[in-house]
Write a structure and sequence with these properties.
Glutathione S-transferase Yfyf (Class Pi), Chain A, domain 2; alpha+beta; homodimer; four-stranded mixed beta sheet; 8 helices; globular; 55% helix
Chain lengths: 206, 206
Amino acid sequence: MKLYDFPGAPNPRRVRMFLAEKDVSVELVNVDLAGGEHRSAEFLKKNPSAKIPVLELDDGTCIAESVAICRYIEAEHPLPNLFGATAVELGLVEMGNRHIELELLSQIGISWVNGPIVARMAAGRFSQIPEAKVQSDERVRSYYARLNKELEATQYVAASRFSIADITALIAIDFASAMVDLKPEPELAALWRWHKLVSSRPSAQA
Amino acid sequence: MKLYDFPGAPNPRRVRMFLAEKDVSVELVNVDLAGGEHRSAEFLKKNPSAKIPVLELDDGTCIAESVAICRYIEAEHPLPNLFGATAVELGLVEMGNRHIELELLSQIGISWVNGPIVARMAAGRFSQIPEAKVQSDERVRSYYARLNKELEATQYVAASRFSIADITALIAIDFASAMVDLKPEPELAALWRWHKLVSSRPSAQA
């Protein structure tokens, strides 16, 4: 198996951390995003969305989308369980993971594509909307406050135990802190308590 | 079980169609979105994201997010399988469903919240970004072309068989056609062939 990867990007890190939790090794192949390799005809056959990560199986089947890759891995390597073990847990972990993805990570993404680093990298390739970044920055800050409040009552993001929802939240917050100038405020104590706990797992180095 | 619902909204329809495929009945409870019931303290206890649908179990546990509700239902009622039966299918269905959600449905959502109907409904409650709608309209049109090309080679959206990815695509396209002025162009023959096929399922009436 090969994982098409890029160091520093949040979604491939999500998959690498998930694989590390499962103790599964794959060959990592760096895709030259700066050189536009993800938009080449050859790569579009692997993923028409022109995005990494992509997992290529030994028979050539390609699975794109971080969570789709993780679901495949979970089915092949069920333990430790990271998506939920009962029907209720499966629902609650999916809910927690989606809340983070759709209301935090996606807003961080809007701030990123409309921010200064992408302005330099993708100059002229698409038009940025500064007003959209103002709105998404505000939504990210507001989600941090919500997450902090939730983490005052529970140890982990979803279903009261470590799951893929914690991995998604960690890679989102670390990317926002390092690359988008959206580091959570220091006074969000419960969020930082959780961040320390999850960052201390060996998989967080993946 | 109760499903907090709203007629005409795309995501509750996704869950109703999934439940109909499984032949599972739930009590439907209409939430008064126009009156702001989804932002009431009582509703926020069920879903802090202030969104429908929410499935409330008999013990009071609440599962929000359409796909999380569907995963719970799939675990409780495995047949007919709608998320994939093997590891590879689980990965491919998740990929197909996510491509539709993240690259089509979410862009339809951006066009909707920045469009004329929401301008009237939510006047003054948040600021619209007309430029964002121009960008998302263009992305929706471009995704329709991609989907049409994919459906020239395959009968269904994901993993060569009916799955939740078809339900997501149907509710997205029907909402875009009826409420956002983003009906797919008539010349997209493969897309319309698929649309007719999936719309003819009894569950599409749910």
